[in-house]
Amino acid sequence: MKVTVVGAGAVGASCAEYIAMKNFCSEVVLVDIKEGFAEGKAMDLMQTASLNGFDTKITGTTGDYSKTAGSHVAVITSGIPRKPGMTREELIGINAGIVKEVTQNLVKNSPEVIIIVVSNPMDTMAYLVHKTSGLPKHKIIGMGGALDSARFKYRLAEALESPISDVDGMVIAAHSDTGMLPLLSKATRNGVPVTEFLDEEQQKYVIEETKVGGATLTKLLGTSAWYAPGAAVSVMVQAIACDQKKMIPCSLMLEGEYGQNDICLGVPAIIGANGVEKIVNVTLTADEQLKFAEAANAVREVNGDLKF
Ligand SMILES: NC(=O)c1ccc[n+]([C@@H]2O[C@H](COP(=O)([O-])OP(=O)(O)OC[C@H]3O[C@@H](n4cnc5c(N)ncnc54)[C@H](O)[C@@H]3O)[C@@H](O)[C@H]2O)c1
Ligand SMILES: O=C(O)C[C@H](O)C(=O)O
């Protein structure tokens, strides 16, 4: 299994590192536009191989996409991250052009590739890849829900004063500060609804902190997060590489599912060797349905700024 990661910055390098450490891929190719940067990151990571015990071969290239030929999966992390006080949506002006160009280069060299979109604003960038790549829809997957769900579980465990391994939960809808929908109604501690343990104030705190998870880290770090994003991507790549048929919330092109059309939004899906094997329809409460529709309206407005 050959994986390309475009963008050897914070998220791209973290993603390559987690993929290598889990030792399920034969090859990871890092691509960046900055001269020598991807080569340097690849060499540094390869010098951890004997220390960390992996056999994945990591190489880097400055923009030579012939080196990515025959990739099974490609991850797009190229583009700028937000700074404190910014929204993800403000990145569209620069990142749309980058994502479009990168997509064309990837598909030209790997026509069968499955693309995982990470660059922000992610739901809109995933939509852009659908509109410009010519790939079938099951081969384009936006990464947001896997990360947001991990942050939801972190906040749930904090409120429950429990180990994270006791907790399960999922975030769907948009990967944005306002459009995320943590499904509290379905979150559990060892199968017991968390609503049995948390009062209303605690529930509200968990939901709000989850939604602004990325903004909180951006304020602390001065740029956006990379460890959990990289780990979330590695889980998705492994689900494809190992045909795990794992249920992961991902930003996918909807054609009637959840009452939406012609939009990429976070929904639970089965991820396996073919990319998206199936979108899973879960029953939402009336309030969740309303919030999902509101998130869709907001993403649709951002999509309106795209030029194809
Ligand atoms: N979807 C998510 O959950 C999620 C999580 C974290 C970050 N992000 C997004 O991922 C993106 C990357 O974040 P980061 O922290 O790694 O940023 P970064 O600045 O550390 O890295 C981005 C890299 O992309 C490279 N790049 C720019 N244009 C390129 C091009 N045309 N071809 C190849 N490489 C190019 C840059 O040189 C840089 O090394 C941002 O848009 C950020 O908002 C999304
Ligand atoms: O918050 C950001 O801008 C980066 C990313 O989308 C995240 O959620 O960490």
TrEMBL record:
Cite the entry's keywords alphabetically: NAD, Oxidoreductase, Tricarboxylic acid cycle
The similarity comment for this entry is:
Belongs to the LDH/MDH superfamily.
Q: PANTHER family annotated for this entry?
A: L-2-HYDROXYCARBOXYLATE DEHYDROGENASE (NAD(P)(+)), L-LACTATE DEHYDROGENASE
| Keyword hit for NAD | yes
List the protein's name: Malate dehydrogenase
Q: Which residues form the Lactate/malate dehydrogenase C-terminal domain?
A: 147-298
Annotated coiled-coil segments of the chain: none
| Keyword Mitochondrion annotated | no
Q: Name one Pfam family in it.
A: Ldh_1_N
Annotated CDD domains: LDH-like_MDH (cd01339)
Q: Which NCBIfam families match?
A: PRK06223.1
**What domain of life does the UniProt record list for this protein's source?**
Bacteria
Tell me where in this chain the Lactate/malate dehydrogenase N-terminal domain is found: 1-142
